[in-house]
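Format is sequence with structure; example below:
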Amino acid sequence: AAEQLKVGHLQLEVVIRPDAVEVGDRIGGLIQRIPNTAQGPDVTALSALITQIKLKYPDQKDASVLAEPDTSYERLVQVMDAVRGTHVTQGREIIRTELYPDIAIGDAPVVRKP
């Protein structure tokens, strides 16, 4: 999914829905929809995707996390943590790697039901 991104400036948006997390580019649209696990957002899959995107846009530091009104604080923090950084093992050490540390929080766009 990260391969479809165009070179240029990314406007990364991560939208928290009741059943999934949607990762997209404000200009280019949806990159990938990651369904929730039984425990909530699949932060492992989200972190892997965000890491792939970071490889394509290594200098960018900003992202938006957009949540629906009924999103719990815990769910919001889980998603923000996955967007902000990840852990990488180097030898015997676990090192925190920065991904998109400058996070803006906002309201998710309303989905119109047919």
